[in-house]
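Subject: Sanity check before I submit

Could someone independently write out the structure tokens for this chain? I want to compare against mine line by line before I put it in a report. The sequence has 754 residues.
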Amino acid sequence: MATLLYRLGAFGARRWRTMLTGWLLGLLAVVGLGVSFAGSFADSSSIPGSPAQTALTKMERHFPEPDAQSARIVFQAPAGHKVTEPDLRDSLKATLDATGRVPGVSEVSDPARDDTVSGDGRTAVAEVTFTTKEADDVPEGTLDAVRAAGASAERAGLRTIYGGEPYETSHPPVGPGELLGLGVALIILVITFGSLLAAGLPLLTAILGIVGTVAAMMGLATVFDVSDNAPTLAIMLGLAVGIDYALFIVSRHRAQLGAGMPVKESIARATATAGSAVVFAGATVLIALAGLSVAGVPMLTSMGLASAGAVAVAVITALTLLPALMAMAGHRLTPRALRAPRAAVRRRRFLPLIGRRRAMRSAAHDGRTATMGVRWTEGVLRHPVRNLILGTAVLIALAVPGMELKLALTDEGSSDTSSSSRQAYDVIGDAFGPGANGPLVVLVENDDPATANSTAAAVEDELGKVDGIADVSGVDLAEDATAARIQVIPESGPRSEETSGLVARLRTQMQPLAQSSGSYVAVTGMTAVSIDVSDKLSGALVPFVIVVVGLSLLLLMIAFRSIAIPVKATLGFLLSVGAAFGATVAVFQWGWLAGVLGVPSEGPVASFVPIIVMSVLFGLAMDYEVFLVSAVREDYNRHRDARAAILNGARNSARVVASAALIMISVFVSFLFSHDADIMPIAFALAFGVMVDAFLVRMTLVPAVLALLGDRAWWLPRRLDRVLPRLDVEGENFHAPRPAAPHAPAKESTPAHL
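---
Independent answer below. Compare away.
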């Protein structure tokens, strides 16, 4: 593979104008097609074939609902008053009449007729049905007109709140916070390279890759159901890995230029060596993200595949577009202190003392003196046992809160308290009980209308004996009388463990009635569907962990021909994930720093957060492991000095890995500003997990373990060594192609081994 990448990099360096033109035309074509055939992203949170979803499909067949968007208007009288008072009642009725006349509104319910007035008479809820289909967005003008129709009620003293999906606050995939994160990433790149040009290349390639990815997703949304959270997650990961993968290649290229290697040869070699590691790292992330489809949840599958696509584009961009851009930059990417070494030598004898000190600092950037990474590693190696024990203890302490992680699908109660949909949710919960925001439905179906009716009556009686139910509606028969439904209002909210337990008890207690009557009896409703999704995701977490751990052990064993390295890396990954989950619980469930970070609500996190965080962190942890340990192994294979190999590996890779981690952290943190309840826990967990994994696990625990193991770190049984395939992760064994003909002009030197 390294030889193929060498040829690809050489082609990009030699024909950089052709490569850039092809990339530009391809990008324009993808963007044009994506915008022209753009579809809508789906708000899907169901599992085909789950008990609640199957029952919901049956219920919609017997009780068809209009395919239209709907919203709620919550009216609340001042303290000590009721909406049934004459003045308030008249203003409320006038508001409802005015709302019904708004173009785009097909129907408005009457709270008095539909019994949606609270027991204390202070709160009333009206349902507004729009002519807009469920798959489309209600025009902003229609929503504003509905708000304006409530002016008479507000003048009379009624508090008017608008809730429901049409009034939920939308979160664009990229906003000011994300742009700020890119600015921070650019600053880190400038500090790392000391050059604005070199810093701009990783940022440019990452942005172009994201533009193509999002455009492709928009076009694919017309054919496939793509979750509305998929673009944000794909942008977040695409930016992070896109910048980092380009950073690794540009860093190798600049180091080779500083050593005097010609530009074209350096580009080809950087693509072959660092590019091989990028392919390995990207493939690891791709496998983990694509593995999310195993859970069988369409929403999670689309998020995983979209993110995998963004990572794939980042890898392709780093291997094709980046070499062309580096060739266009030419010698300007050479580190400034190394562009004219001979002139520097001639001037050195005339430099005053302060100038010599500056020269020494410049030389430090080239790795000839002890860098900060080397000094850090030396400190770890002085007391490896102590650092290993302290570091592990810190990680375990951070992971302990993760045992209390609670999962549920987000709803309007997860939105920011300043949004109207969240305010409507809270007022309804206070007035009618928390269960009013998440009603359940018991569906009864039988081909015999008499049996269906009698079974529904028996179910209604049985529901009165179940604990945890606040209210049970009457039996609602379908037109053909072969089905009936009964609405159940739980005492607890839709995201609480009590409601999940209630659904489980109802299914158990309804089973005997179904068997004795031969009827189909099931618990459904959107709350029950969400609970099924959450249970499915929770159940998939443990198998996914087993697969990820096994994959980690296998890949690293193949890459490093060692038993100890994979075991150590996998244990470190599990500690990093545990620490990320523990910090997530502390912030999003306990409320620590919630106000500072702008967390909209405290409570269970989205059910898909753990499995997504695990898949992404797995790939990123393997990135850092590969770039750090491969540098150590390369030095050890040359000199067979375990301790010196650790220090030289840190000298060659610690600075780049630290910069890559800081860039990822800045990108992930920037997505906290979205205030999206689905994305914020993922962004926070990934930022915290990357920080812990890069600086505490890979740059502290890994050197300590390697120092304690010594030569044993690189031991692999001979039988296993013969069975495992050979994988040259760093491309160190590639052979550069020889010149095509003996009489050809002299080529740039191409040693057989890096």
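---
OP: Matches mine. For the report I'm noting this point. The first strand starts at residue 70 and ends at 76.
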